[in-house]
Amino acid sequence: MAVRALKLLTTLLAVVAAASQAEVESEAGWGMVTPDLLFAEGTAAYARGDWPGVVLSMERALRSRAALRALRLRCRTQCAADFPWELDPDWSPSPAQASGAAALRDLSFFGGLLRRAACLRRCLGPPAAHSLSEEMELEFRKRSPYNYLQVAYFKDLETQPHMQEFRLGVRLYSEEQPQEAVPHLEAALQEYFVAYEECRALCEGPY
Q1: CA-to-CA distance for 118 and 192, rounded, in angstroms?
Q2: Are 171 and 48 a contacting pair, CB within 8 Å?
Q3: 38 confidence band (pLDDT: 50, 70, 90)
Q4: Sign of the dihedral through C-alpha 200, 202, 203, 207
Q5: How far is residue 195's CA from residue 198's CA, in Å, rounded to a whole number?
Q6: 11 vs 51, which has greater pLDDT?
Q7: Residues 140-164, buried b or exposed e (16+ Cβ, 10 A)?
Q8: What is the pLDDT of residue 196?
Q9: Lowest-confidence segment of 7-11, 127-131, 157-161 by average pLDDT
Q10: Is pLDDT of 90 > 80?
């Protein structure tokens, strides 16, 4: 019995060490842009009137959340299959071992629990990459990205680029951010001359 308990304790310690190592290794390989980051980019684009930016970020946020859900499902299904909760059905303690049987079964259960946790860490990556706050989960459950998309889809997406840059530069200047406004105003001037030449080319007659 003592030998069996020692083996189980050794397994538990090994699994804990593997879980920590798995978190470090998985963090380096994580490549998904998280839904909350994309949602924040979308709301920022909405605030500055960047309607194409709203559409791009919110659509990517929805796709990212769908991919995250699929990843969670795959990882949980795979790890549940690899590390089931079943205890050893062939082990039957003798009367002399009965007093410690419950403790050994508990150790075996927690060993399986930690092995599954390590499997999930390897599969999912670090918690920061796949865990959403309750507030962000609520935003997606309320389908808030679609509300932003509806507004953005009905905005005038044919506004000339130089006007977008000009309005953004003016807004930053009016908010006493002249250094941030300068690049947008310069871009507006450059894009204006491009639009001017395009307009002349389109307005010329056949002769």
Answers
A1: 57
A2: yes
A3: very high
A4: positive
A5: 5
A6: 51
A7: beeebbeebbeebeeeeeeeeebeb
A8: 80
A9: 7-11
A10: no
User: For the whole prediction, is pTM greater than 0.70?
Assistant: no
Tokens of 141: 């459950």
> Interhelix angle for 144-153 vs 134-141, to 10°?
50
Domain residue spans of the chain? 2-154, 159-207
Q: What would the DSSP string read from start to end of the chain?
A: -HHHHHHHHHHHHHHHHHHHHHHHHHHHH--PPPHHHHHHHHHHHHHTT-HHHHHHHHHHHHHHHHHHHHHHHHHHHHHHHHS-S---TT----GGGHHHHHHHHHHHHHHHHHHHHHHHHHHH--HHHH---HHHHHHHHTTHHHHHHHHHHTS-TT--HHHHHHHHHHHHHHTT-HHHHHHHHHHHHHHHHHHHHHHHHHH----
Q: Is the pLDDT of residue 22 over 80?
A: no
> How far apart are alpha carbons 62 and 98 in whole angstroms?
54
Mean pLDDT of the region 89-104:
58
Is 50 exceeded by the pLDDT of residue 58?
yes
Q: Which tokens hold the place of 61?
A: 């946020």
